[in-house]
Each structure stands twice: as structure tokens, then as C-alpha cells.
Amino acid sequence: MDKHIVEITGYGANGDGVARLDDGRVVFVRGAARGDTLEVQLTEIRTKSARAAIAKIITPSPHRVQPDCRFYPECGGCDFRHITYEEELDAKLRRVNDALERIGKQPINISEIQTTGQVDGYRNKVVLHSDGTSLGYYRSGSHDIVPIDRCLLLKDDLNEAISGLSPRKNVTPRTRSNKLAIPNKNITPRTVSSRLAFPNKSVTLRTGSNRLASQLEEELDGLVFGITGFFQVNTSAALLLYKKAREYAALSKNETLLDLYCGVGSLTLFAGRDAGSAIGVEINPDAIKAARENALRNGLLFIEFIGADVSNWDSGPISPDCIIVDPPRKGLSKNVIRKIHNLSPKRIVYISCDPATLARDLRLLEPYTAKEICAIDMFPRTANIETCCLLSAEP
Fold first, then answer.
1. Which residue in 264, 251, 253, 259 sits closest to 296, CA to CA?
2. Would 299 be classed as within a structural domain?
3. Can you tell me the distance from the alpha carbon of 174 to that of 179, in angstroms, rounded to the nearest whole number?
4. Please, what sign has the CA dihedral across residues 23, 28, 31, 34?
5. Domain count, the chain
6. Which of 117, 309, 322, 349 has the fewest CB atoms in 10 Å of its CB?
7. 282 φ, ψ (degrees, to nearest 5)
8. Pairing of the two strands 26-29 and 49-59
């Protein structure tokens, strides 16, 4: 395919650089930085857009840096190791505000992203994949394995464990071995290596201080949560998000909270402890079981959890003062938006991992209007961004 000279003007939703070809088509370039002048090789052509790979950096962007990971960009785990962290935050800020303005037609925007100040070493969980001979992450855009022995995003004890793992052929893994907590002291990487084999399997490792994953706990602002497969992988950033959601919910003891898509109930408990009553709804039975255990663990027995599909759940006579929604990336269904309107809460706290679907749903939730919005950098060095928005029916 043809080569072209392009200037990168911004970033797409997945972190690719964005430019325009001479014929006006948008072209997405993996590993490009805003301000780059590049020679690119087209790899995929569509009617209105194209994808391209960098053939040559003619003039590097002032935001470009040398990647600090030897597996980048081959590994698909990170998107932004070729630019400064300041540029990464600016890209995420632009993405949210562009969605609010262009899709949501919202007069509100954000001027700052909350961060923990920790760019690396924040993940408490990792999922590694194996083809029987190699153990690592998937290559960007494929299911090919990129072997790794270390990941900059992971906490130190996880990296210590990974360095001791060596896949072996023709060994059947024990039933419980594909999900294992890696403690700080009690189990050495060598011991872990002797327990695990990876013939075409995935393995989940989680940091912690106890021997079994089912026993691991995490403390957030005075509350203790059991760590399961559903718990947040960046605990410090999750605390920022939860504090903002609790602030927006502004619950009092004579009010009721309804938390839709509540997962293991961590946010239901975090914000709901201020309310007189709280209900969390979640379709996953394992998550609901963990949520009930978390309520018992923290003595918040007035908080109830219901296992149901949010889209089809019959809410009955409940009259919530505040509804928290943290939907999947696809956003809220029409049924859920209709249900929210019928319940008529005073306030809605909308948590989103996709600015585009958030912006779309803000329009569909009218006459509720966005009063405040905050972004949290939950996953540094990736293109993902979390937002927390307060909506109110009051003018």
C-alpha cells in the first residue's frame, strides 16, 4: 500500500495518533505522538478512514520520549509509553471534553484529571496467557503471545513471581492453579513456578499477604473488602473515584441509595454507609455473594444486595433519592434509562469508562443535567480514562 507524509494532530480513543491524508480521510497511526511529522505506510483502507504504521519519523513531536519498556509497543498492555505523562493526561482530557461537546452537546467540561501520582507499579492483578511454550501478554491487535518476564505496570511481588515462572509442555495444571494469589513473603517465585504449568492456558496472579486468593482483603477509607476477580486492579485510584462518587451522592441518614451494576458492592458500601438504606443490583451471582460478604464484613447490615439483570429488574415500590450507575463500556440501555426516569431520583452519579457512551447517555437522561464532572486516571500509560458525573433534575 502507498506511503504518505502526515502530521499528527491528536489521538483516537485507543491511543492511536490521528492525522488526515491528502484526500481528507482520517488515518490512525499506532505509536504516533501529537506534533509528529511522519512517513506512514497504509495497512488498512476504508471508505472514510485508514490505518497506518510508522515508516519513518521525519520530525519528532516535542511530546515524544524513548519508551522505557523493552516490550513496548509490541506488547498490547500499554498505549502511551512513547509520550510524556503530561501529554498522556492532556490527551485523555481532550478526549473527555470532545465527547461531552460533540456527542453530548453538554456545556460542561473538565479542566483537570485526578491522579495518584503513581504511573507504574499500580496493578495488583495480572492475567498472563500461554501457547504452551511462551508466557506473557497478547500482542497488540492479536492473540499472539509476547513473552515477558517483567511488566512496569505491576506491583513488585507480582514481577518477582513472574520472573520465576517457566511454562512446561505436556503437564496438566492442577485445578486451582490457574488462579493464585502471590503473597509478599510466604511464597517465593520458585515455589510458584513448581505449582504452575501453562499448556494453552491463562493464569491470573494477584498480589496480597495471605496464602489463598479467597482470603485476601483490601482496606479503603476504613472499610475492608475481600479481593475477588471483580475488585479494582488499581486500589489507590479506585479510592479517588469512590471519594468523588461519595461526595457527589451527598447522602444523609433519611435518604435511600440505589446502586445499579454494583459488582461486589464496594461503592454501594462506600457511599451507602452515609444513607439510611441502600440497595445494590448486579446480575453476576458470584459478585452478589461477595457483596453480601463485604456488607457482613463491615457490619453494614442495612445495605441490601439483589441478584438481577438491571435492564429487566422490577424495582417495586423503592423510591431512591440517589442512583449510582457504573455500567459496562456500552453504557445504559433504553430500559435502564426508562427505569431511572420512572424512579425520579434527586441525584444521579454516573461512573463511566467510555467518554463517548457517557456523553450519549447524558443526552438521553434529560431533563437531568450534568452539574459536575471529574476524570480519574485509573490506568496510567493506557488510553483508558474513568469519569464520574453528577446529574440533577434541579435547574
1. 264
2. yes
3. 10
4. positive
5. 3
6. 117
7. -155, 140
8. parallel
Q: How far apart are CA 275 and CA 255, in angstroms?
A: 5
Given CA atoms 195, 198, 199, 203 in this order, what sign does their dihedral have?
positive
Q: Which residues contact 203 (CB under 8 A, 6 or more apart)?
A: 127, 128, 130, 135, 177, 178, 179, 180, 196
Per-residue pLDDT reduced to its tens digit, 286-331: 999 999 999 999 999 999 999 999 999 998 899 999 999 999 999 9
Rounded Cα distance between 189 and 50, Å, is 45
Answer whether 279's CB lies under 8 Å from 258's CB.
Answer: yes
Beta bridge partners of 128: 203
CATH number at residue 44: 2.40.50.140
Provide the greatest CA pair distance for the chain.
Answer: 66
Q: What Rg, from alpha-carbon coordinates, does the chain have?
A: 23
Same domain, yes or no, for 288 and 260?
A: yes
List pLDDT tens digits, range 154-199. 999 999 888 877 554 434 433 333 444 443 433 333 333 334 465 5
d(CA 252, CA 195): 50
